[in-house]
Amino acid sequence: MMSFFTFSQSIEGVWETYDDDSGELKSEVKIYIKNGKLYGKIIELHNLDVPLKDALCYLCTDYRKDKHVIGMEIITGLKKSGNDWKADDALLDPNNGKLYDATFWLINDDKLAVRGYVGWFFRTQYWVRK
Q1: Where in the numbering of this chain does the DUF2147 domain appear (predicted)?
Q2: In whole angstroms, what is the distance from residue 1 CA to residue 78 CA?
Q3: Which of 24, 60, 69, 122 supports an S-S bond with 97, CB 3.0-4.6 Å?
Q4: What is the pLDDT of residues 77-130, one digit of tens each?
Q5: Which of 36, 129, 42, 126 lies closest to 87 in space, CA to CA?
Q6: Rounded to 10 degrees, what is the CA torsion of 109, 26, 35, 108?
Q7: For residues 53 and 43, what is the distance between their CA atoms, to the nearest angstrom?
Q8: How many CB atoms are located within 10 Å of the residue 52 CB?
Q9: pTM, 2 dp
Q10: Separation of alpha carbons 98 and 130, rounded Å
Q11: In DSSP terms, which residues pair with 123 in a beta bridge?
Q12: What count of other Cβ atoms lies within 10 Å of the Cβ of residue 57?
């Protein structure tokens, strides 16, 4: 007798983000689930144009204004919807201080699609599991 097991891939873990144009490693984001919702915070920055001490969210307009980007929660409160995680105003870009509606989904165990929306317009990045 043979048994078959299916393993659900976990979105939780540390993910590397890359610059869309240069392909340079930009940051590492720790994604975790708390109370059934998805969150993520920056745990490392790479290839900065400014000293690490100056990596603050100068353009943020909420409680994160002028706070250090390291340790900053940039993913907040996404809810599971089928194979995706979604929420409005849930993804912060600390480079411009803007909040985006977001949808995340696993391409495979080592590749995560991260899509930010403003109205009908969107951009998708692919993060790599560390």
Answers
A1: 13-129
A2: 41
A3: 60
A4: 999 999 999 999 999 999 999 999 999 999 999 999 999 999 899 999 999 999
A5: 36
A6: -10
A7: 14
A8: 11
A9: 0.89
A10: 26
A11: 116
A12: 22
Domain residue ranges of the chain, discontinuous segments joined by +: 13-129
Helix/strand/coil percentages in the chain, nearest 5: 0, 55, 40
| Residue corresponding to tokens 């940039």 | 74
Residue 29 near residue 40 (C-beta atoms within 8 A)? yes
Distance separating alpha carbons of residues 87 and 81, to the nearest angstrom: 10
Contact between residue 113 and residue 104 where contact means Cβ atoms under 8 Å apart: yes
> Please, which residues bridge with residue 73 across strands?
41
One-letter amino acid for residue 51 of the chain: P
Dig out the tokens for 87 from the structure.
Answer: 């929420």
Which amino acid would we find at residue 81?
Answer: S
Nearest partner of 24 among 60, 52, 48, judged by Cα: 48
